[in-house]
Amino acid sequence: MSSDLHVLLEGNNFARLLAGLWVSVQIALASMGLSIVLGTGLGLIMASRSKLVRFLTQLYLQFVRIMPQLVLLFLVYFDLTRGFGINLNAKLAAVIVFTIWGTAEMGDLVRASIDAIPRHQYRSAAALGIEGRDLYRHVILPQAVRGLVPLTINLTNRMIMTTSLVALIGVVEVLKVAQQIIDANRFTYPSAALWIYAVVFLLYFLVCFPISWASRKLEQRWNPA
Fold first, then answer.
1. First to last CA, the chain
2. Which among 60, 48, 42, 35 has a CA at the least distance from the CA of 115?
């Protein structure tokens, strides 16, 4: 075990793993930031009373959920380049795909949080003359945020873990770096793969566990049993 792990101490291998992890986190955070902005707007639209609007937004949501993220990555990165002559950077393609996915999921979370607001809150606001945008800005959204923040944190966690797929379109993230290290040392350290992937798992754990812990603490604080 010790000799296999020694490969991480050679050269800048461990620093490369950390740099790859940072690439994953960057893609996830950029995608999540855009998803929060776009998804909040989508969620407000999804909460519309119009059956047509609800149908169209649900169609988008289900399409994104059914379509694997890997297929979307290939469609955006390869087919846009081939079909429209758009030369996309692999990282940008990844951000676009995860934003499409994150916006759909975030929109559904916002919709669910708005739908969970008791109807008497709407009636009370109407009695005070609060309507339209002011109703959502001052009454509905502040209450929805309490249940929405832990769910958004969980979605961020899911996005960080799903970024491992971007290695398949050439992004050098942490799993890609791990594979490069394994391939470069397959004769010197033939059994190192297991331990290198264990280190990658540990790195993901160190990033994702605090996020999950924060989510649970917020849920316990805002929604005590």
1. 46
2. 48
Sequence-distant (≥ 6) Cβ neighbours of residue 47 within 8 angstroms: 110, 111, 114, 115
Q: What is the pTM of this model?
A: 0.84
In angstroms, rounded to a whole number, what is the distance separating the alpha carbons of residues 154 and 198?
Answer: 23
Could you please report the per-residue DSSP string of 121-185?
HHHHHHHTT--HHHHIIIIIHHHHHHHHHHHHHHHHHHHHHHGGGGGGGT---HHHHHHHHHHHT
Tell me how far apart the alpha carbons of residues 159 and 99 are, in angstroms, rounded to a whole number.
10
DSSP structural state of residue 24? H
Distance CA 100, CA 38 (A): 9
Q: What is the pLDDT of residues 22-78, one digit of tens each?
A: 999 999 999 999 999 999 999 989 888 888 998 999 999 999 989 888 899 998 888
Contacts of 216 (CB under 8 A, 6+ apart): 150
